[in-house]
Amino acid sequence: MPRVPDPRTVPLPPRTPDLESLRLLVLVADLGSLGRAAERLRISQPSASRRLSTLERGLGLVLVDRTRRGSRLTLAGQVVAGHARRVLDELDELLAGAGKLRDRREAELRVAASLTIAEYLLPVWISRLRGRRPELYIGLQVTNSENVPELVESGEADIGFIEGPRLSRVMSTRQVAEDRLVVVVDPGHPWARRQEPLSARELSRTPLVLRESGSGTRQTLDRALYLAGCERVRPLVELGSTAAVRGAVIAGTGPSVLSELAVRGDIAEGRLVGVDVAGVDLTRDLRAVWPTGRRLVGPAAELVAEARRAVTGDRPPRP
After folding, report:
1. Which of 92, 158, 190, 218 could form a disulfide with 300 if both were Cys (CB 3.0 to 4.6 A apart)?
2. 120 plus 61 within the same structural domain
3. Verdict on whether the full-model pTM lies above 0.90
């Protein structure tokens, strides 16, 4: 059988030195005096001596010869000090690089948002934020709700805003506003003269002018009809923007379901007619999204706060 070594005779591995001890060793090498090195670090000489002794014990090496004329590094001390200098230089470079990244994060904000939020809400939120942070650069990517989480998780956007009820991946979310979908038709459509509300089943069986699959509006409608016990609606036409859907409905192509934010003016001015629906909940939460485990900080957190204040009417804090 192989012999089991006596643990009392096995040398202990060197302990990882702390950075301040390495800094002290480099200063002793540069200044030739433990006292002057301690003064530079603003610690007492006895404290510096204890720290150096701890470093030597941890590495299992004698690093400094202490004499009345000063402190001189041993050969081993010179080698260790060379390594320490490189470690400290790398640390300084790391801190400088982190500072640049932090400054850049504070100077720009990349946002991904679904179409309805980007067109009807974000301009106000961004304007308010830039009113307090005029130096801030803000870039906006507009896509459907299904794609927003991917842009945020990949780092292409710092914060995302979605209108759909379903997330394509696990993320942190916070409600920033509420929206309601409205069934709309052109004034010449038979539904424009209805006295009683549509039923959920009538709506689900009628071909509609719709946003594309993956849009928050489409997800919300499909989910609302499912919860009402109805099948998904059949698309008459699928279009890639809210403006295109509005235009098609105004032109008489067919009914649609759109955000109240998008059609409020059209209904008020008679270009479209809103149709009541019974038995189906078409309200939805508008949410900010960001990667799970990542803290919401900086301009991204400020934009989310502005979005919530725009709903509640609160004033931003004074700088």
Report:
1. 158
2. no
3. no
